[in-house]
Structure formats: structure tokens, C-alpha cells
Amino acid sequence: MPAEGVAGLATGLSSTRPGAGPPLRGSAAEQAWAVRLDKVTRVYSDRAGGRRGSQAVQALLDVSLHVARSEVLAVVGPSGCGKTTLLELICDLQRPDGGHAESEPAVLMPQRDLLLPWLSALDNAALALRIARQPRAQARSRAAALFAELGLEGFEHTRPQELSGGMRQRVAFLRTLLSDKPVLCLDEPFGALDAITRAEMQGWLARVLEHEPRTVVLVTHDVEEAVLLADRVLVMSARPGCVRAEIAIELPRPRGRTEAAVVELRERALLALGGASGAGPEDRGDGASGAIPAGPGDRGDHAGGAA
What we know:
The longest helix is centred in the middle third of the chain and has 17 residues, at 195-211. By secondary structure, the chain is of the alpha/beta class. It starts with a helix and ends in a 31-residue tail after the last helix. 43% of the residues are buried. The protein has helices spanning 3-14, 27-30, 83-90, 121-125, 127-131, 136-144, 165-177, 195-211, 223-229, 260-276; strands spanning 33-44, 57-68, 72-76, 98-103, 106-109, 183-187, 215-219, 232-236, 243-248. Helix 1 crosses helix 8 (195-211) and helix 9 (223-229) crosses helix 10. The chain has a domain at 39-105 and 184-305: 3-Layer(aba) Sandwich (Rossmann fold), CATH 3.40.50.300.
């Protein structure tokens, strides 16, 4: 995307967000943290309609993390280790069973696009603005101005079922950006895209955040994506999820996939993930792995609430 296109997108977004957002309350405000979790634990009890005597699922155990304003934090870990639960706690969609969680106003972009089938692509993108009580014409105008920047020009009036998977995800991403929230919680935002489009969107996101900083918590299974986009990478253990390792990415942007420093940091994260397949926080074993290992009893997205 040309630099002027990114700058134009940033300008369009600036008109819909209140700068750094409202201040945090209490001690988090003193440290200028946008997100703060201290010793957070989350347990899912037997749900209504479940089998009698089924055991509770502990998704998170004593998780602590702080995210500074305008920082990009990537979270990687085995499937089922509570990464989605972590995002929902930040967005105040869940409450912890132990510990403390606070954040500036945050919005969640889930793994699935969740577009409304009866609305056009344009109206889906403008949905957050309509919920914020902006007039329909104004909301549609602001969203339409950004369609070309995401490669969606000409599809404004197309229904979701007529869009490709990648286009649907881009509409959902635009809806998230227009939500007027200073903290973006992105749950595998590019996981549904093909490799070429995914690489383009990663570069696009990096450029947008350079021109229009937001606080971002990015959950991804792509370690390379984490290193390319984040300021820090948090590695979580298998369920119950806890912080296994933290890797600072002190590299200038933009970053190239084949840069020696990027490759080295990717290998460090993969090595930490090899140890993350162990079940507990005391297990510090290391082992190289070419992919993020699956957690024990992985039941897929949101099963047991511990995705």
C-alpha cells in the first residue's frame, strides 16, 4: 500500500477516536499502562446441560501482564491455553475468578468474522459507528472512505455470503478499527487469509499502527507474525495457561522476514514454545518446534472457554 494511502487511512481513523482514550483508574494510571492483569486466574465450572460430574476447566493460572499505551503485545501458546479467554478478560466480557484485570476501553476482533448476513459489507464495517449513535449516512461515509485502502473498493454493497473469506475478514478488521476504542484485542485476525493476502495485511497493519498508534494485544499461532508486528512476544504454557517466557522485539520497523535478527527471535520463540507444551509453570524444559504445539485435551475454539 502506498504511504499516502496509509496516511489517508490514519486520517480517517483519527476522526473517529478520542486520542489515547479515557484514563485508567488507580495504580494502572500511575504507570501509564493501557492494560494490566495481576495474578489472574480463570476457571470454567460445569455448564448447564453438561454431563453430571464433569470436571471444571482451569483456563488461566496466575497470569500477570502489563501493556503500555501504544504498545503491540503478541501472545502465542499451545491451542487451548486460554489465549481467547485472556482477550475477553481485557475486553471485560468475562471476569476473573482470582486476581485483578483492568484496561482502557477495548474491542475484540474474534477469530470468526461474525458479519451480519442481512447487511452489506459497508453497513457491516460501519456497525460500530452506528452502535455509537452516529447517523447512518455519516457512518457509511466514513467506512466507505477506507474501503479502497483494504482492497474492498467496489464491494461496498455486497452481502457477506458473496465475499471471499479474506474479504470478509478485512471487513471485520475495518469494523474493529472504526470502533473508537484505544485498545484492540485481535484474536488470529489474519488466520483465515491466504499466505499472500496475510503477508500484505501484516504489512498494512504495521504501517497503520505507525501512523495511528493503538494499544494492541494480538493472539496468533504464527510466531513469525508475532516477531514482525509486536514490541514484545508473550509465550504461554499449555492449560492451565501461565506466562512461560517474554521476548522483547527491539528491532526497527519495517521488519523483513529474512532478516537475521527476525529469524533469530523467531527461533527463540519456537524454542520457548517447545517447552510450553508441558503442563505447568514449573516445567522449564526447552525444545525446538516448527509449530505451536497443541495443548492437552484441546477441544478447539472456545471449548471449555479455554481457547
